[in-house]
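Hey,

The postdoc asked me to send both predictions to you directly instead of through the lab channel. I've kept everything plain text so nothing gets mangled by the mail client. Protein one:
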Amino acid sequence: MRQPRAALRAVLVGLGFLWLLGSSTGAGAYATGATLTPRVFVPLAQRAWEYSPPIEMPLGASDSSVDQVASSQAMMDLFRAAGGVYNRTSVSWRQIEPTNRSPQEYDWTFADSQLNTLTNNGVQPFVLILTNPSWASNTPCGPVYDNADMAEFVGALAARYPAVRYWALYNEVDSMTYSRGFHSGGCFGEADLDQNGNPDFADYAEMMRAVWKAMHTANPNARLAIGQLSYDNFTAETRPDWYNGGCCFNYHFLDNLLGYLSANPLPEGEKYADALGFNDYKFYNDHVWQRRYTQVGVGAKAAALREVMAKYGVDLPLVITELSGDSTDAGGVSLDEQARQVAQLMIQGYFYDIKTLIWWVYQDFPDSCVVHTNCGNWKFGIVDQDETPKPSFFAFQVVGEQLRGYTPVKARNGVNVVQFTFGKGEREKHVFYTKNPNGKTKTFKARHLLVTDMYGNTTWYTHQGDKKIKLQLTPAPIYVEINP
């Protein structure tokens, strides 16, 4: 399905959203897409970012293993100016409790610096709990010896950080690669890594049972997410007949997990989890999920997950903490193409009722990055390595500005044109973009059109006596109000 370079990038990206612990050509290169005065690129020290507390929108961006939103006030101000609500970050159990000790003796230094900084600035952390200490498990990413130890730890987290809404146990828990020498934060997709005689998916379920109870005892408003699942790039031994290729993840993990939950119901008032978390990449939406489901992009993969849940009578809200497209490195896509991908994926996810849409990653990895193999080529961020907003930053920002307060109405996945309609009271706003890079002309029966492009530039169109207005649609999403 993909060329060798693309295949390598996909594998590296899948692995590289490795557990979160923690080339620019100058500002002028980014001036091609936007001319709005509030979006002029100027040196960071001169920027005066406007901010007002956002109405709840599910948009956000993720930390990486080398850069965090909370690392500087400048980064925080940029994030808030973009309209970011959720920041995926992480805490390390091994760092906070390196030896078995009571919560009063935990080392909260790094966690306090990250989580308190975010919440004090009005940003919602979505926290992955990562890296088991060696005294608690034989792996950093899989089953633990005693779930009571994990429950005590997470209960202390929930009590200490009551403003944190979402927590998740590990990342990409359906991974099957730990025994092959690598992992992406979670490893419950194999048979029995802890050799306790129970399948690892059952160990994960029992861990969630203990953690959920401890978390909600400490903070009834906290939410525990399953995952985050990859649910892509399935291994040869587990992939279904209709899936070609694959590497790292267990196709059956979610079925096995939900089957276990269904067979082991909990007492009234208790849950295993409050949400189902997954990671989503444009490549797989285009080449796998849209070929099996009628929904567009993110919605197609969401439909697959909801179908599995329905088999077991489960109806959990969906959350995404890694949403991404292509890199803007030399072998990737242009800056404008990345902006189109950001806008399209965020719009899709918002329409299909995904509760958090967190872009991976917020800031480009530096050219000198040596934390992961070839990570210096990972330019997936909406802010570059020099903390300068890329065009995708503004496309992200405009999604929030245009759709805040609107709710999904209908979608049309045409042969050439994708249309989403959103409503607010009696008002409707339509989003259009084409699948064809050459674009397509669309005629509107209207007296007036108010059209906003993906960078926020607005144009007013008036008919010329025939009550018809023609627009040239392109792959860049536009927001259209008819006879406003």
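Protein two:
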Amino acid sequence: MDYELPLRNEASNKGTFGKVLNIAGSDYMPGAAYLSSVAALTSGCGYVFLASEERVINAVSAQTQNVVFLPLSDLEQHLKNADVLLIGCGLSTSKKAEAIFKDTLKQMPNIPTVIDADGLNILSEWSNPKLPERLIITPHVKEASRLLDVNVDRIITNMEFFAKELSQKFNCTTVLKSSETVVCSKDLEIYNNTKRNSALAKAGSGDVLAGIIAGLLAQGLDEFNAAKTGVHIHRLAGEYAKNDLTEFAVLANDQIRYISNAFKKLLN
């Protein structure tokens, strides 16, 4: 399987490699906002703008100075300046989060969009949703069961079939996650990542993957290539982390630290 990396022109600036608008985090889940934002930057995009609650912004800003922060009250004026939208990581399913999610997708220009985590849970309850043409969804099997109203065990035993069902239902690229991962394009092309790694079975791993994919999208990859390359980079980062730290001790932020090792391998 060939993996496509974005082109990196040396005659460039921070605007060259794209701007990700990340709508993420909630009072009790600020970590998801941090992990997804920093993973996107570590994957090569030029900017990440994190729009969230003040409590989340305070928590994330204490951990990194690399993200640009936007209060949710200023969100509308920044929507048209983004190259990629990432939405849902740690967002919660509160009434306020639901309104933010739906209003953003209704107002957002038709740019590449990644919906993860609580965004998917809100989507599962939204009849006749307004969705962008260039869309990636990243459900684990339990989120997929809500989106399709299908038992989790059925999905686990036939991942390719249900990845195709999701791509057809939402006219999107699907990243269906379990111990193995299936990526299905909107044209129903399939990529399987069958390499298992228990080190990635930690809270926050999905946020890291969503950030990687958004970062690759911002640099110009199409949805299917961003998704399959992002899954592969995440897998490699997990392997490097496991080799150094053991499968027991790897945390989601460790996965981010090893993204550079994954890029090195792909560039050689």
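Summary for protein two, as requested: The longest strand covers residues 47-52.

Thanks,
C.
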